[in-house]
Write a structure and sequence with these properties.
The protein is an all-alpha fold. Among the domains are: 36 residues; 67 residues. The chain is 75% helix and 0% strand.
Length: 148
Amino acid sequence: MRFMSFRHPASRRSATTCERTWRTQLLLPGVVLSGMLALVAFAQNQTPPHPEKPIILPEANRPPDANEQMKMRESQNRKTNFDAANAVRLKQMVQASEMLETMAIALKAEVDKSNASAPSPEVLHKAETIERLARIVKERMKMTVGPS
């Protein structure tokens, strides 16, 4: 005698679930693998992120040639010479203005000391010397020399 099996409807579902699990175990890695291969192929077909040309042109970073270096040195030397000449000129102007001040104070004291209505020839000579020195100082102050 044969036994008839009466399966519960839930037992059929477990067989279907088992088949689905088996399909999932075989198909899911295949789908993932094909997706990864598609991404790799897409990534290889893209253009590189860096352009073939450099961002900074080589002309921008080239060192100066010998002529340009010589011109730069000459320019630097002229500026240094100009600064030195200005320092000497300033020192001379300070000395001349101090001498001018000393001579003017001495002349004033001499004029105040003498009560004569007409100045003596010595006082006139000192006044002319002071006047010449004042003009020289004034001309030196106007003189501006720049590096060329």
